[in-house]
Specification:
- The complex is a heterodimer of chains A (288) and B (318).
- Chain A is mainly alpha-helical.
- Chain A has one domain: Orthogonal Bundle (ABC transporter involved in vitamin B12 uptake, BtuC).
- Helices cover 73% and strands 3% of the residues of chain A.
- Chain A has helices spanning 2-31, 38-56, 60-81, 91-113, 138-160, 162-172, 174-179, 184-206, 217-231, 236-257, 262-276; strands at residues 128-131, 134-137.
- In chain A, a hairpin with a 2-residue loop joins strand 1 (128-131) and strand 2.
- The radius of gyration of chain A is 18 Å and the shape is globular.
- By secondary structure, chain B is mainly α.
- Chain B has a domain at 24-236.
- Chain B is built from 15 helices and two strands.
- Chain B has a two-stranded antiparallel ribbon with strand order 1-2.
- In chain B, helix 4 runs antiparallel to helix 10 and helix 12 crosses helix 13 (255-271).
- The longest helix of chain B is centred in the middle third of the chain and has 28 residues, at 147-174.
- Classes of the chains: A mainly alpha (288), B mainly alpha (318).
- The A-B interface holds A 28, 32, 34, 82, 84-93, 95-97, 99-108, 110-111, 178, 184-185, 222, 225, 229, 260-261, 263-264, 267-268, 270-271, 274-275, 278 and B 49, 53, 55, 101-102, 104-105, 107-109, 111-113, 116-117, 119-120, 123-124, 127, 239, 242-243, 246, 276-280, 282-287, 289-291, 294, 304, 308, 315, 317-318.
């Protein structure tokens, strides 16, 4: 019974992890940039949802697309105004730049919101669903289903829409895409914006589950890394599988090593995987 | 002219550093010791990041390991200077093992893996409470000598360490090792085909980037008398050396030192006014640095400055 319960907890977490990592993986795959800002984007999304709930009474689940939209603007502008100028530079430069931007954003949030942990306390929580001895928290279930929905919407956009096909084309071959008339700089900015959208929606959904603080951004970033490496870089199915894998591994890791070591367990796993199988479980090229 | 000018300048700088404690008060000595420590970190990172071109974020791992190795051995009665040596040895051996595993990765994957190593180490140290004091930190025995003498002692020790690191950099940059590392930075596969033992060379560079950092970590532990995991495994310790080297010019002998001085000056001037925005300030420095000084302090890109301001055509950058 305990095993089933932990498995369910892991699956509930996994759906959220897929949403956390989807934007990160997209940006990494298309722009070839490790976006250190991603964790802070997620936290910012959480804060947007938090304040919308406190002052306007809008449910965080409802707020998710709007938080995503707000972050799209931020991401688009950051990419267009700053990151785009060094997008072809070596890893060290782009990584250090997003790190610097993250320090700015994160410290700014610390100043604005303080480091206090806050939480959205829903006035009408959905409660729990009991199946025998097993407890399924319905708020978590809803958040997980919604985040999977958002990931699938991203997949659908990438597969069917003109802009999505352009993103995939740039991911596959930048020069060839440019020759086919794709405006690469524009696509880069839109992709970075979409990455921020996914972070914002994930943050909104997470705000009902996890405490909100700028200090949480590192943990989110770490999870995004691990999911990408687990599932393989640059594929939506990979992100979903990686997310579920991490959720389950973390839940069982928490059982055997204690929940305070959950992140360490996944980091150790990350290093091992990087060395043994850097292409991930689903390793495949191309953003499909 | 330049050829005669440089050694003169170096001699002048060295003399100034040696006589500094006679003139300065404790604040100046402390600042100078800090500057020298930053120089050691920058010079060390330069071996792997500057010459070899591997984006290592493992500096804080080496620093923390050195600090804890030094602190624990000092706590067990090992003399201070020997404890610094132990710090260096532990960090270097760890780098050797780590390099064997991680240096097979390239680019983003190497950067992430090296970043994560420090996080894991911090957690391990945090949970090994019996051995390391865990999150409570570790107190070191206090030396029973006069405060001013103590400051001078640490200053001259750090100066010696910095000079050793600098000398190693000079030797490496003129040796075939430095040549091989630069080849790896340019094109690793080609270097391999031309007969550079890339695995060995990379590992050597990685260990070089650890040895002095480990010693500096152990030194730092004795200097401040108290360490805890969040302090010595701080991720900023990995980022600051990179910023310094990028400021001064990567893959050069004196670049990291110039960068360390410039960075510390910036930090000291701005920090006193913006204490609670410390890391944000570092972020701002990074953004300005990468954006306007892509080739370090001596390569200010006026073109990019103008382009960004919208003075000349904007659309060419993709």
């Amino acid at each position: 019974m305990l095993t089933v319960q932990i498995l369910i907890n892991g699956l509930l977490l996994g759906g959220l992890y897929a949403c956390i990592a989807a934007g990160f993986s997209l940006v990494w795959g298309v722009l070839n940039i490790i976006n250190i800002l991603h964790g802070s984007f997620i936290v910012l999304g959480s804060y947007i949802a938090y304040f919308a709930y406190i002052y306007l009474g809008i449910h965080p689940f409802l707020m998710a697309p709007f938080a995503g939209l707000a972050l799209f603007g931020l991401g688009y502008l950051l990419q267009r105004g700053i990151i785009n100028y060094v997008v072809t530079a070596p890893v060290l430069v782009t990584l250090t730049l997003t790190f610097g931007l993250d320090l700015l954003l994160n410290n700014g949030m610390l100043q604005a919101f303080t480091a206090d942990y806050r939480k959205v306390n829903l006035t009408h929580p959905l409660g729990n669903w009991f199946v025998g001895d097993i407890v399924v928290p319905l708020d978590r279930l809803a958040a997980m289903l919604l985040s999977l929905l958002f990931v699938l919407v991203l997949w659908w956009v990438l597969r069917t829409f003109r802009i999505g096909r352009a993103i995939v084309a740039v991911r596959m071959d930048r020069e060839a895409a440019a020759l086919m008339g794709v405006k690469v700089a524009q696509i880069y900015a839109v992709t970075f914006g979409i990455g921020a959208v996914m972070a914002g929606t994930a943050g909104s959904l997470l705000s009902v589950i996890f405490p909100i603080s700028p200090l949480a951004s590192i943990a989110y970033l770490g999870k995004a890394f691990v999911v990408c490496v687990l599932g393989g870089l640059g594929s939506i199915p990979g992100v979903i599988i990686g997310g579920f894998a991490l959720g389950i591994i973390e839940s069982f890791g928490a059982l055997y090593f204690g929940s305070e070591h959950a992140l360490t367990v996944s980091f150790v796993l990350l290093i091992v995987l990087l060395v043994v199988r850097p292409t991930g479980i689903m390793g495949r090229k191309g953003y499909e | 002219m330049k050829r005669a000018f440089a050694p003169l300048l170096m001699l002048l700088g060295l003399t100034a550093l040696v006589v500094l404690p006679l003139a300065g008060d404790n604040y100046i000595i402390r600042l100078a010791t800090n500057m020298l420590m930053y120089s050691v970190l920058g010079l060390s990172w330069n071996f792997i990041g500057g010459y070899t071109g591997y984006p290592s974020f493992a500096t804080s791992a080496f620093f923390g390991l050195g600090a804890y190795a030094g602190a624990i051995s000092q706590g067990h009665g090992v003399p201070m200077v020997l404890a610094w040596g132990i710090g260096a040895v532990v960090a270097t051996s760890f780098a050797g093992l780590l390099g064997f595993v991680l240096l097979r990765l390239r680019g983003h994957y190497f950067a992430i893996a090296s970043l994560v190593v420090a996080e894991v180490l911090r957690e391990v140290v945090n949970s090994a409470t019996d051995f390391t004091g865990g999150g409570m930190g570790l107190n070191l025995p206090i030396l029973r000598i006069d405060v001013d003498r103590l400051a001078e002692l640490f200053y001259y020790s750090m100066l010696s360490l910095a000079l050793i690191t600098l000398a190693t950099t000079v030797i490496v940059s003129r040796h075939r090792l430095g040549f091989g590392l630069r080849c790896i930075q340019q094109n690793e596969d080609a270097a391999n085909i031309l007969g550079v033992d890339t695995t060995l060379y990379k590992n050597f560079a990685f260990m070089l980037s650890a040895v002095f950092v480990g010693a500096a970590g152990a030194f730092y532990a004795s200097w401040v008398n108290y360490i805890d995991p969040t302090d010595v495994f701080d991720i900023l310790l990995s980022v600051q050396p990179i910023v310094m080297v990028l400021l001064g010019g990567p893959g050069t002998v004196f670049g990291p030192i110039i960068g360390a001085v410039a960075y510390l000056a910036l930090e000291e001037i701005m920090l006193s006014n913006l204490l609670s925005f410390h890391s944000g300030l570092l972020g701002l420095i990074i953004v300005i640095l990468i954006f306007f000084l892509p080739n370090g302090l001596f390569g200010l890109s006026w073109k990019r400055l103008k382009r960004w301001m919208g003075i000349s055509s904007a659309e060419e950058a993709a």
